[in-house]
DNA sequence: CGAATTTGACCACA
DNA sequence: TGTGGTCAAATTCG
């Protein structure tokens, strides 16, 4: 078991070297007036991330074998679920997804939650906030879609095999606006996110421990995760379409809480929270109160720069930097730029 | 060395 | 039969 020390050491050195190089670049950028603030901040974040990684490596090999993250949940709102709009439940018309379990036909896993998040990215660094939603995904497929210029990437949660997390997402670059990505999430995270340290914001009482075993998700823990998702969406999202496939069990917006994802945690209190809360509520509440109705909301936020929110319309974003963008994309979301001619003149 | 990605084959469904 | 989604072997990455 002591054989794998070499590689870890190697990676550690690599990480530190990378951090040094990044610092060097930052030094250069500081001397160049044309360098934008965002670029610099990106470098800072990268350097910080490098430090974090290196430290976590050391920490991991030392002790703390049990990550045991904090269950970030704080929901004190009882679900006030009364009769939904329409009939309580007469006939399930959710023919969308059926139980894809050929061996076990007992459980009908229907109504897999699905919501789409259209993300536009333009700054050279916005990608981190956009494509990295704070979860760790593993790509398991990529397919060209008919009528779409760019292929669609399929991702699933990394902890799928070790835990029962069935959350998946698919990223699809917009046809005409390469700066827009359509990210469709499917399923919810049940995994204990063993990453991204959560600051001891406020000792919240855990309502119920998350599923420890590998038992498939039960129709219960829905609200907490949703809150996280929403927060995440808010953090970086632009447009969120919540589709209520499930005819019941919808929750209200929980109190404010920041998940503090990857490395965008510097100054998250810069913008007016009251306004945030307001628009947040005002926008999301309706879509939740009427599950059968899908809502579309537009948001616009930068990781650390300017913050502007808007909804009900398209927000034109002036941006610059495209080379870096594409580069980062391949690194973050890997929506490989392969227009791959062949779909061009394909019309029926 | 293990983990993540790539990429064509495979499969279910309409 | 065609299309969207997944699997898995090969390959790259860290
Ligand atoms: Zn997960």
TrEMBL record:
One of its GO terms (biological process) is response to ozone. Residues 60-123, 193-222 are annotated as: Disordered. Coiled coil: none annotated. One of its GO terms (cellular component) is nucleus. InterPro entries: WRKY_dom, WRKY_dom_sf, WRKY_plant. It comes from the Eukaryota. It is found in: Nucleus. Residues 126-189 form the WRKY domain. The keyword Transcription regulation applies. Keywords: DNA-binding, Nucleus, Transcription, Transcription regulation. GO terms for molecular function: DNA-binding transcription factor activity; transcription cis-regulatory region binding. The keyword Transcription regulation applies. It holds the Pfam family WRKY. Gene3D superfamilies: WRKY domain. Residues 89-105 have a biased composition (Basic and acidic residues). Belongs to the WRKY group III family. This is WRKY domain-containing protein. It comes from Hevea brasiliensis.
